[in-house]
Amino acid sequence: MTYTVIIAEDDPLQARLLEQFCTEEGLQVFGAVSSGRRLIEEVTAGRPDLVIADITLKRQDGISAIREMIGDGLAPVVILVSGSVDPEHLLAGYDIAAVDYVRKPILRARFKQAVDRAKARVDARRRAAALPDQVNFITCKVRYRDLQFAEPQLLYAERTMLRKTKVVLSDGTHFLTSTPLHDIQAQCSERIVFSHRSYLVNTARIAAIETVPGGSRRNYEITLIGCPVKVPLTPTYYGECRQQMESFTGGPL
Hints:
Blueprint: E1 3-8, H1 12-24, E2 27-33, H2 36-46, E3 50-54, H3 62-71, E4 77-82, H4 87-95, E5 100-103, H5 108-129, E6 137-142, E7 145-150, E8 154-159, E9 165-169, E10 174-177, H6 181-186, E11 192-196, E12 199-202, E13 206-211, E14 220-224, E15 231-233, H7 235-249
Parallel strand pairs: 1-2, 1-3, 3-4, 4-5
Antiparallel strand pairs: 6-7, 8-9, 8-12, 9-10, 11-12, 13-14, 14-15
Helix pairs in contact: 2-3
């Protein structure tokens, strides 16, 4: 099975070492870049399975570059590498759902462990994409008729002020239905969970969970693949939401 990767590292010696390790692990290296801006361009053009990125890059750091890619609907599996021991960097990696965080100097055995986890996450995504015969269909009431859509199409559903439910699909369409959130969830698999009392979210579409700064409570925002809207996530629903996301993507950071 082929796994493609782009390396983002501004130290030429480290870049060559990473490329050597990747080749030894059977990864197909699309290329190596030294800046966050070039990383975004290469991932947009090449759509690799994996990205191995240093946090400190030229022109734009690795974390912000990956966040920008997620916002653009790109979600490669990410391994972060860094010489930093700053816990904020580890937390940032957790927020963007990186599969692993490898500290420099990079040891061969530790790198293999990270790549094995990354391959498992890619494999999980491929298995999910290869099961069209197991797709669940959801029925919603729209005026006087039933409207059906496949569960994987759902990005999120939101209870509105008009006592309607707004359903947003992955192709960019949305509609209002009289079907309540709980009735929608009852038709779904365990992938569809509440992130807030007024929101259902498809955990298979989560690209990142990030902390919302400020406020007296610790709240979060969810970034969904292919969706510009941030979905709120409250502490009440954080555990289940994170657990379902990680069961789909191959485990926590």
